[in-house]
Amino acid sequence: MHWTDFRAQNGIAYWVNASSFPFSESDVMGTVRNSFAAWEGVETSFVKFQEQGTGNFRGSSRDLRSVVVYDPTGGQIGAPAGSGVIAVTRVNWNNRGEILDADIIFNGRDFEFSIFANATLRGQIDLQDVLTHEIGHFLGLDHTPLVGTASTRPTMNPFQTADAPRQARSLEMDDRAGVAALYPFEQGKNVGTISGHVIHEDGQGAFGVHVVAYRAGTQEFVVSALSGTTGEGGYEISGLPPGKYQVAIEPVSRGITHENFGGIFNSTFERSFAREFYDNQVEQRDSRTFQVQLGRQISDIDFVLGLTRFDLPIITNPVLPVNTPDEQGPYRVSAQIRDDQGIVSADLKYRINGGTFRSRPLIHQGDDLYVVDLSGQVQGTVVKYQLQAQDGDGNRVFYPASEDSLIRFEVIAFSGKPVLYIAGRQSGTLSVFDTGLEREVARIPTGGETPLSVALAGGGRYVFVTNTGSDAGASDNRVTVIETATHRVVDHLEVGAAPLDVAVSPDGARVYVTNSRARSVSVLDAETLREIRRLETPTVGPGPFGIVISPDGARVYVTDIDGDQVLVLDADSGSVLQQIQVVSAPRSLAIHPNGKKLYVAGFNGNIWEVDLEQEGMIRTISTAPARGIFRLSLSPDGQRLYASDPFEAQLLMVDLTQGFVTDRISTGGQNTRDLVVSEDGAWVYVTSQDSNDLQIFDVLLNRFVKSFKIDGSPRGIAIRTWRGSSSVSQADFDSSGQVDFSDFLLFAGGYGILGSDLWFDPRFDLDGNHQVGFSDFLIFAGIFGRALN
Fold first, then answer.
1. What mean pLDDT, rounded, does the chain reach?
2. Residues 529, 493 contacting (CB under 8 angstroms)
3. d(Cα 748, Cα 728) in Å, to the nearest integer?
4. Cα–Cα distance between 189 and 496 in angstroms, integer?
5. What angle do helix axes 127-139 and 25-40 make, rounded to 10 degrees?
6. Distance (Å, whole) CA 13 – CA 33
7. Cβ atoms within 10 A of the Cβ of 354, count?
8. Which partner for 122 in 305, 418, 585, 755 could form a disulfide, CB atoms 3.0-4.6 Å apart?
9. How far apart are CA 224 and CA 251, in angstroms?
10. DSSP 3-state helix, strand, coil percentages of the chain (rounded to 5)?
């Protein structure tokens, strides 16, 4: 459906019933104009609008007057109470698909809206977010299955989420491509197109398969389409800017069903297949890259569901080693290999540190599973390899297909400085970041959806990662357990729905997980890796969310975000000992090292200090003008509290002696969420989810000193501090593999510089005391002359 070119070029008329909204007319009209302007501002589209004024209008598909109206009673919206329909756009069109009338109606009966430019309180929905989305329907667009983070999620995604209000006011590439496809300027026609078909093994077209174009080598989606729009299984992805892309097919998921769509897609989608990239590749790195040029169409990019390769062996579901500190090994490689004619041989072709290729057979374990173990290697070793299989007819396949893109892993040497473990919300991985080497040294797939929170337990032996599931309602219920010494995933523990935050008992033996859609807390044993208890939490709404354990391990504190309260549980029995009314929308908690004070972050703003020895004694710490606080963390001495403000991307410092915010420092990122303080209190590590940033704050200098990119929407963060002397790799400043005279010259150049000096280089601060002095020299002298391996 679309408006005629004449109407779109000259301005599609609309009227507004401003008086029906519970806001001033000037505020309503400002919001309406901004929302229409977002679509009119697409440079590759000629669509324009004409504001016709205000009046007491009602939605009607027959009056040929397109109106925007607020329905406080539900009489016009037409949806039953509790349906979840925030607004609806009713479109009337003729038999040529030309739109004649389109009315946008807001559901004021079931929802409360916000019209503020820079704030949205919990429980409210941003009016401009919703109106911008509905104008997409007004123009003839349907929903998109693309999700992504709040900053990348297209406006035409069918779900409104509370993770980042006001993000839907702006359009993403998929939205812009959609309106440009309907109303293209001449320059809009110069973008590129990828097209093809998706079919079943029998040759029949597959309907409703999600086909996605990704920027080559990244997980950043750009534009997508659904198969079935251009004939049997046909698809066309239009509106692609010039560049390199990789194409994948994916089942429509994350709570999206055919009910979110209209027209030909108002039926079931094809879902019985696994995600794959073009040319039957499981991994994106093995997929073919397409160069899209201006005004050109790349056609016949066809898919067959099921990773089918006719007359050839099929290698799927590989489980591959990641970068690991483990020198002992073995390093296991496994995959499923099958062929109608039977597999005659399967081998691993590999080489170590660029040497000659060697070969080892994969051992058949039954069914389609084949495995091979490689022996342990010293730190610094790089292993590159390729799988190959041959069937009874002599057909041979390779994974990956080319020797130019061999799979690799490295046996890494840590620097000896603190290591950070960071959950990648969008990537489904755990990143390992060495603060001494100042780089990501490993990335470990969690095997779960939407990993959000991280904790170390069992004396640092394991990392526990909660997999929460999607914002659209599809909960995961697993906690991934990763061994720090090997980076192997050793278990997936089943807990309650949507495990969210995690806390560890003081002795490291118990891990407590809030099941945010199950009103419970799972208690995990860090030795046996089993859920040993589940504590019920009578929250008012979904929850619990934040969690902290008392220093003596006797009590568990959790936040009830809808009930504006903190529940106090007995750690053994799970009984509710107390319900403390606190700040509005309590999200996260921190407890003083002495166990006497509890700090509560208000997601709508402010921090509450609760005196646990004197019930009812509460002090409010104002965070205004910050609109909300997400995470809290205390300095080791308990005198300073750090808080993250996701809305303005700030780190707040609170002097607990005085009880007020002393500093607000911008992180320079977007959607700043989690933070952790180093064991010595000298550093604060912060993640900004939507800008893919890890930021390092120097407490002594009182400023952010470094920022690093961690792709995949970094979220939860945990820190592991090494015990003992500095390692060789830490003093190998020139990365030559040994600590020699050239490293001494570099070290000498930084000697005597204090942390407060402009030229301070933390690489040379081997003892971490914010200055490069004699103790650092002694450490360096003890390592001098040693090689990395």
1. 89
2. yes
3. 17
4. 50
5. 50
6. 13
7. 7
8. 585
9. 12
10. 10, 40, 45
Q: Sort residue 313 into left (φ over 0), alpha (ψ -120 to 50) or beta.
A: beta
Phi-psi region of 433 (alpha: psi -120 to 50; beta: other; left: phi over 0): beta
> What number of helices (H) and strands (E) belong to the chain?
7, 53
* 693 three-class SS: strand
Element (H, E) at 192: strand 192-199
Pairing label, strands 112-114, 124-126 = parallel
Predicted confidence at residue 789, as pLDDT, reads: 52
Structure tokens at 163: 């993770």
Residue type, position 521, single letter: V
Buried b (16+ CB within 10 A) or exposed e, 643-676: bbbbbebbbbbbebeeeebeeebebebbbbbbbb
What lies within 8 Å, CB to CB, of 779 at 6+ separation is 725, 726, 731, 766, 767
Three-state secondary structure readout of 244-313:
EEEEEEECCCCCCCHHHCCHHHCCCCCCCCCCEECCCECCHHHCCCEEECCCCEECCCCEECCCCCCCCC
Whether the predicted pLDDT of 309 surpasses 70: no
Report CA 108 to chain centroid distance, whole Å. 32
| Burial category of 637 from C-beta neighbours within 10 Å (exposed 0-12, middle 13-18, buried 19 and up) | exposed
Q: What is the percent of the chain with per-residue pLDDT over 70, rounded to a whole number? A: 95
CA distance 195 to 278: 12
SS3 annotation, 438-451: CEEEEEEECCCCCE
Kindly report the number of other CB atoms within 10 A of residue 714's CB atom.
30
Q: Are 193 and 199 in contact (CB under 8 A)?
A: no
Question: With pLDDT > 90 as the criterion, what percentage of the chain qualifies?
Answer: 62
Q: How many alpha carbons lie under 13 Å from residue 147 in its C-beta half-sphere?
A: 22
Q: 567: phi > 0 → left, psi -120 to 50 → alpha, else beta; which?
A: beta
Give 88's strand partners: 105
What is the dihedral sign for C-alpha 197, 201, 202, 204? Answer: negative
* Burial class for 22, CB neighbours closer than 10 Å (0-12, 13-18, 19+): exposed
- Structure token pair of residue 549: 């354990």
Structure tokens at 265: 């897609």
Burial class (CB in 10 A: 0-12, 13-18, 19+), 43: exposed
Quote the tokens at residue 36.
């229409």
Q: Which amino acid is at 247?
A: V
Instruction: Look at residue 724 in the predicted model and tell me its pLDDT.
Output: 45
Is 60 exceeded by the pLDDT of residue 192? yes
pLDDT given for residue 59 in this prediction: 87
What is the strand order of the sheet 429-434 is part of? 439-445, 429-434, 419-424, 714-720
> Could you check whether the bond before residue 544 is cis, i.e. omega within 30 degrees of 0?
yes
Pairing of strands 672-677, 683-688: antiparallel
The token duo for 231 is 């004939």
Query: Residue 270 carries which side chain, given as an amino acid letter?
Result: E
In the DSSP assignment, the letter for residue 399 is E
**Statement: the pTM of the whole predicted model exceeds 0.70:** yes
Beta-ladder partners of 521: 514, 535
* For range 449-467, the mean pLDDT: 94
